[in-house]
Automatic annotation (TrEMBL):
Protein name: Protein SDA1
Domain SDA1 N-terminal as annotated: residue spans: 86-463
GO cellular component, one term: nucleolus
Protein's GO biological process: protein transport; ribosomal large subunit biogenesis; ribosomal large subunit export from nucleus
Sequence ranges assigned to domain SDA1 C-terminal in this UniProt record: 757-802
Family: Belongs to the SDA1 family.
Length: 804
């Protein structure tokens, strides 16, 4: 088109429209407004760009050995960077003329990045990012290049390329098929032996996995690649992968504020539905101040446990998630890592690296319930109080225990911990840690504890150290729940319910039905019985009035009537209390049985009361008839009609209740298919039941094996209640913190002298002119006090003698 218009660079110079007189920024704005009118200027600048690239490459070939790049002629690099940015801005307006420009710029950065100065590298990288944002380049073309340029020593360029890769992938849709190709590029670079490239690839994978852009649920290959990096030939890559696997659960705690606020709102709603109003009322209004505090604290603990359970149930990613969950062959992974751990001491691995490997192996064994029996004798070498980071090693030992391991394999390690930590000559901190470790191991493998050993360990509850006594009492609380027969009778607590029996090795609870479906059945029965009782109550008040009319006024049976009404009130109260008491029950099975028995008892009591009322009315009628005869009065005919009416209505109500109970289909007779509404109702009933148990529970709640295997063991909890000795710097910090709110010390005289404002009332009284009578009385008082002092100062008063 330029040739058809007859525009050449010579004609442009002759007309005064030379591109050298126009700055690139001004020309860029004009091209965006009128692209067709400036095609000749574009061709000229494009030719200048090509010439600058050739000149730069020639100079780079001449001085390739220089470390800082081309320093003799910086104008070449500046012109090249400016023209590259200019062409990147105007490429969308000239797709045909600049079709080859993105590829040329990519090749320039790939081939000559080492020879470029830092400023030119940043300019070219920004131009490529601009082209990719304008859809002139695809991220697959730049992924490997941007990972490569991160290995250079340029910090600014590394941050620019890394942030661009992360932000671009995060903006992509989760269903975009490009994710697989990008993952393949990064994982292939991670598998290379080059340490710097593998390091950048691992950092990219970890960042995207941590931000849940490539989560493990949908991208198993990412989690597996991070786990496989533990076997990289480079020790730095291995350490980075191990550290990420260990610290991932700590990263999950730092969730967004929006998510936490939504969880709090959900938990508030659930707590409003679940917590019993009567419990809240009693905690705030009934009892003494000390009992109220105890009830309020108990209520807060129950609320906290309910919120925690609901939060873990509503979160998309569980807080116990780990990339180790997605291992295809967890047993092989643990064995390979353990073999590397065994050879690590001979190859010169640091103790910190070996400790991280121990923790990852233990976490893998606990998550997948693996059998690596040679791991426990290996830990015996480290189970001594003087070993560095012993609490972390003991936490790993606890983490690797689960109910699928035979107790014989763990028993030598268990006895080693008991013998090394729990004895009279050991330090209090070591005894407390040892008792806590024993408790956690027995919580996972019940067969480890013997009766003699438990009775010896229980004696530490009388220790004066709080950490030791608390650990011993927690051990007692655990065995009260799992196996009370090993304890002495006085340590078993109050007898309530059946005695717990420990599970045998390999014993597993298998669900034969939908979990907690019995709650739905019982709620249906309760609602049906409540409806029938309401119907009966709606129809029987007339009969009750008629029955009350049968009682004469002058027969002296007012007390009996009051007793009957009180009995009825007691029955109703027990029915209401049964709903509340079952809500604060102990074990789940006992609650269900008690509620069923309460319902049947209440029904039987109602029937018996109705029969007793009928008999009482008959007897009272006979007594009243006899009294009427004795008094000379006649009995009314209305009393017989009312008696017959009440009996008829009570029989009709009982027949209606029996027919409704037979007509209602049971859950077993139905098809057994549950709807979404049924599952929602089961969740609500389970939440209510857990809240009632939490309010009534006073002992130790034993979690199941799945919860124990998923939860990470915190080494800090093994040192609970232990007061460590403070260093001098920590003590000084506490002293300085106590002085912050306290003012500088000053004497009272100095405070009075610097006082601003008027004088005080006390000072005004001294200056006030007193009347003559007040002056004389004051002078007389002073004289009498002086005289009394003088009389007592000479001789000491020793009291009167008893015989005078």
């Amino acid at each position: 088109m330029a040739g058809s218009l007859g525009r050449t660079p010579d004609s442009l110079k002759a007309s005064g429209r030379s591109s050298e007189k126009l700055s690139l920024s001004i020309l860029q704005g004009k091209i965006k407004r009128d692209p067709e009118g400036y095609e000749t200027e574009l061709e000229l600048i494009y030719k200048q760009f090509k010439a600058s690239v050739d000149l730069f490459q020639q100079q780079a070939a001449l001085s390739f050995s220089s470390v800082g790049g081309i320093g003799s002629d910086p104008s070449v690099a500046k012109d090249l960077g400016d023209r590259a940015m200019f062409l990147a801005h105007v490429t969308p307006f000239y797709p045909k003329q600049l079709a080859a420009f993105p590829a040329q710029l990519t090749d320039l950065l790939r081939t000559s990045c080492l020879a470029m100065p830092s400023g030119l590298r940043n300019h070219v990288a920004q131009a490529l990012i601009l082209l990719m944002n304008r859809k002139s380049l695809v991220i697959e073309d730049l992924m490997a290049l941007f990972l490569d340029i991160q290995t250079l020593g340029d910090k600014n360029l590394r941050n620019l390329a890394f942030s661009h890769i992360i932000q671009t992938i995060r903006k992509m849709s989760s269903t975009d098929p490009k994710h697989k190709s990008l993952q393949k590029i990064v994982i292939s670079m991670l598998e290379q032996e080059d340490e710097t490239k593998a390091k950048r690839a691992l950092v990219t994978l970890c960042e995207l996995h941590k931000r849940k852009t490539w989560p493990g649920d949908k991208n198993d290959r990412v989690a597996i690649a991070i786990c496989e990096a533990c076997f990289h030939t480079s020790p730095r890559i291995m350490i980075s992968a191990l550290r990420f696997l260990l610290d991932y659960e700590n990263l999950d705690d730092d969730d967004d504020s929006d998510a936490s606020s939504s969880d709090d709102e959900d938990s508030k709603k659930i707590s409003q539905v679940v917590i019993n109003r009567e419990a809240v009322y009693k905690a705030n209004n009934k009892g003494t101040s000390s009992s109220k505090k105890k009830k309020q604290a108990k209520l807060q603990r129950a609320m906290k446990s309910i919120k925690k359970k609901q939060r873990s149930a509503t979160e998309n990613t569980d807080s116990t998630y780990s990339p180790l969950n997605h291992l295809n062959d967890a047993q092989k992974f643990a064995e390979r890592l353990f073999s590397r751990l065994q050879t690590g001491k001979s190859t010169g691995e640091r103790i910190e690296t070996r400790l991280m490997m121990i923790k990852v192996i233990a976490r893998t064994i606990g998550l997948h319930k693996l059998h690596l029996l040679s791991f426990y004798p290996f830990l015996q070498n480290y189970a001594m109080p003087h070993v560095k980071d012993i609490t972390q090693i003991l936490a790993a030992a606890v983490q690797s225990c689960h109910d699928g391991i035979p107790s014989d394999a763990v028993e030598p390690l268990f006895k080693q911990i008991v013998n090394q930590f729990v004895h009279d000559r050991s330090r209090p901190e070591a005894i407390a840690v040892g008792l806590n470790v024993v408790r956690e191991m027995c919580l996972r493998i019940h067969e480890l504890m013997t009766e003699e050993l438990l009775q010896d360990l229980v004696l530490y509850k009388k220790s004066h150290e709080k950490a030791i006594s608390a650990a011993a009492r927690s051990l007692i609380a655990l065995f009260r729940e799992i196996n009370p027969s090993l304890l002495v009778k006085k340590d078993r607590g109050r007898p309530g319910g059946p005695i717990a029996k420990p599970k045998l090795y390999g014993e597993v609870d298998v669900f034969s039905n939908v979990p907690n479906v019995e709650l739905l059945q019982e709620s249906d029965h309760e609602s049906g019985s409540d409806g029938n009782e309401d119907d009966d109550d709606a129809e029987l008040p007339g009969s009750e009035d008629d029955e009350q009319e049968l009682i004469p006024d002058d027969c002296g049976s007012e007390e009996e009537a009051e007793e009957d009404t009180n009995d009825g009130d007691d029955i109703n109260n027990t029915e209401d209390d049964s709903d509340i008491d079952t809500s604060i029950g102990g074990d789940e099975e006992e609650e269900m049985n008690d509620s069923d028995e309460a319902e049947t008892d209440s029904e039987n009591e109602e029937i018996e009361n109705e029969e007793d009322d009928g008999e009482a009315s008959d007897s009272s009628g006979e007594d009243s008839g006899n009294k009427e005869k004795a008094m000379g009065k006649k009995r009314k005919i209305v009393d017989f009609d009312a008696n017959l009416l009440s009996a008829d209505t009570s029989l009709r109500a009982l027949k209606r209740f029996a027919e409704a109970k037979n007509e209602r289909p049971s859950f077993d007779e139905s098809d057994g298919i549950l709807s979404n509404e049924d599952f929602r109702k089961i969740k609500e009933l389970q939440a209510k039941k857990e809240a009632k148990i939490a309010l009534a529970r006073k002992g130790f709640k034993v979690p199941n094996s799945d919860q124990l295997s998923k939860k990470r063991v915190d080494p800090a909890k093994l040192e609970a209640h232990i007061r460590h000795k403070l260093t001098k710097e920590q003590r000084l910090e506490l002293v300085k913190a106590g002085r912050e709110d306290r003012g500088k010390y000053k004497s009272k005289a100095a405070v009075k002298q610097k006082k601003t404002g008027g004088s005080s009332n006390k000072q005004k009284e001294h200056k006030k002119n007193m009347p003559l009578a007040a002056i004389r009385s004051k002078a007389g008082k002073s004289k009498r006090t002086k005289k009394m002092k003088n009389s007592l100062s000479g001789s000491q008063f020793r009291g009167r003698k008893a015989w005078k």
